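Memo subject: From amino acid sequence to discrete backbone structure tokens
Keywords: amino acid chain, backbone geometry, structure tokens, three-dimensional fold.
Body of memo: The sequence and its backbone structure tokens, given next.
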Amino acid sequence: MAFEQKLKEVFDQLDHELEARYGNRYALHPARPPRHETGNPEMDGLIDVGAAFSPGFGSRYGEGYTVELRLVTLDPVDPALLQDIENQVVRRLRELLPGAFPERDLKVDRDGHVLKIFGDLSLGPA
């Protein structure tokens, strides 16, 4: 639980950075609250970025966390902009994860069609 809480903090920081850079590019979905309207950055603003655990079946990297990125809009999203945002996500995760988890060797890479965080996901000493 402590690992996932720290990981959420990393993604909250990343969400704030992405919102500041890209958050005004598209109209929000009508049911989506504006940025800073909720206490959880995943639940408001244009960008929703987070991670979900994957057991790694069929993955070349095995178990890890798949990175989930959505732009919450009804507007068509430019694929080049989405690629730019994904590149920012990879770059920033590679910068932020070592600071949040200095005791672990975590990596970020494309795994098929998804981005994935993988590496030392052990529970640590018993």
Summary: The chain has a mean pLDDT of 93. The first strand starts at residue 47 and ends at 54.
